Amino acid sequence: MALDALFFGAHPDDVELSSGGLAALLAAHGHAVGIADLTRGEAGTRGDALERAAEAAAAARVLGAAWRGALGLPDLGIARGDRAQLRAVVACLRAHRPRLVVAPHADDAHPDHVEASHLVARACYVAGLARFEAPGERHRPERTLFALYRGAVPPHLVVDVSAVWERRMEALRMHASQLEAGRGPATYLTAPEFLLEVESRARALGALIGARFGEGYRMRGPVPIADARALLAGGAR
């Protein structure tokens, strides 16, 4: 199906952790939003692939996503130079033809997140090349954003997600296998303060733009301004 925006995560909970607010906002405005999980999260410390798929589907419903799917790349094995993985991401882009793509940012400790950032960025360009052998008609997204999670890189854009903050957190809580203590080995995500950390980070980003909660993004290239009035929209009067 055709999508307006397609969000990529290396694992089934990554979009909810980094860019779920933007996904929920766009969906609330009537845009067709999709989520592509590159892996099924099968190498994670907690939860199996089937359980995580059910959680991901529930979270997608909360966010209002029109489509969610897993590309089946190997967990802990995402590789930017793997041509078969590149074809899989290109095929996804050509099938859904999004105008906007949101990918993980490469400033992250998890190697899958780093590789996913480079892989999706490369695929966004390659998908527009007629002679790259992958299913579908060539298509290149108009814009690619890179969602910041825990890195120290300053954002180029901060999106006010205050209006959908509770929905974003509800979607994150759908990933109970990853968050709930007592269901398996303890991890960083099961620590009692983890959700408070998520909130604190969003509050800090929101404070940069005078909002309660924000999500930070980096982008490639300049922001085109065709109408100078856009620079005054939403500003102080």
Q: Which sequence of SSEs, written as H and E, runs from N to C?
A: EHHEHEHEHEEHHHE
Which structural class matches the secondary elements? alpha/beta
Number of helices: 8
- Helical residue percent? 25-40%
Termini separation: 42 Å
Provide the residue-averaged pLDDT: 95
Describe this structure as you would to a colleague.
- With 237 residues, this protein is α/β, with parallel strands linked by helices.
- Helices cover 36% and strands 14% of the residues.
- The protein has a domain at 5-155: Rossmann fold.
- It has eight helices and seven strands; from the N terminus they run βααβαβαβαββαααβ.
- Strand 4 (100-104), helix 5 and strand 5 (143-147) form a beta-alpha-beta unit.
- Helix 3 packs antiparallel against helix 6 and helix 4 (83-96) packs across helix 5.
- It starts with a strand and ends in an 18-residue tail after the last strand.
Protein traits:
single chain; about 240 residues; alpha/beta; Rossmann fold; 7-stranded mixed β-sheet; globular
Brief rundown of the structure:
This protein has eight helices and seven strands, in the order βααβαβαβαββαααβ. By secondary structure, it is of the alpha/beta class. α3 (49-63) packs antiparallel against α6 (165-173).
